[in-house]
Amino acid sequence: MTVIQIMKSNPSSVAPDTSARAAAALMAAGDVGMLPVCEDGQPIGVVTDRDIVLRLMPRVGASIDIAVGKIMSQPVIDCRMDDSIEHIAGIMGDHQIRRLIVRDDNGTLVGVVSLGDIARDASEIIAGEILGEIAEVR
């Protein structure tokens, strides 16, 4: 099984100058916890609900209108559409992340694949192993 079989295609994304408030609203509307941050279709980072809470909220006097480019996570951890589930499981475990950006051969954003996608559509066993690596203290 490969990523293209389980990924979410055409995900919402934001530009680096999008406000954290707008990104949070888009996450809420789409019931997602991560948005790719793109310039010209190329992912340059991701902003997560965790980024908003941990990087923005503790700043004294921080505005929720701050640009996501200032709080996004980098570098982009990604995979390709034809990667195997076992391969991306290794990437997720190594980086202790639950979601990966999916790019085409030109580096353009084409989807997002999550731990939940793996559990639901590929293998609960592999998903459980990834979750164990994510939770591991390093």
Explain what you see.
By secondary structure, the chain is of the alpha+beta class. It has one domain: CBS-domain (Roll), CATH 3.10.580.10. Helices cover 36% and strands 21% of the residues. The chain has 5 helices and 6 strands, in the order E-H-E-E-H-E-H-E-E-H-H. The strands form 2 sheets. The protein has a 4-stranded mixed sheet. Strand 5 and strand 6 (109-114) form a beta hairpin.
Number of strands: 6
Structural class category: alpha+beta
How would you characterize the largest beta sheet? 4 strands, mixed
Q: What radius of gyration results from the CA coordinates?
A: 15 Å
Question: Considering DSSP H and I runs of 4 or more, what fraction of the residues is helical?
Answer: 25-40%
Give the strand order, joined by hyphens, for the main sheet.
1-6-5-4
Write down the domain tally.
1
CATH fold-level assignment: CBS-domain
CATH class: Alpha Beta
Keywords:
138 residues; alpha+beta; CBS-domain; four-stranded mixed beta sheet; two-stranded antiparallel sheet
Would you spell out the secondary-structure blueprint of this structure?
Elements: E1 8-9, H1 20-30, E2 34-39, E3 42-48, H2 49-56, E4 78-80, H3 85-95, E5 99-103, E6 109-114, H4 115-121, H5 124-135
Parallel strand pairs: 4-5
Antiparallel strand pairs: 1-6, 2-3, 5-6
Helix pairs in contact: 3-5, 4-5
Short description:
By secondary structure, the protein is of the alpha+beta class. Helices cover 36% and strands 21% of the residues.
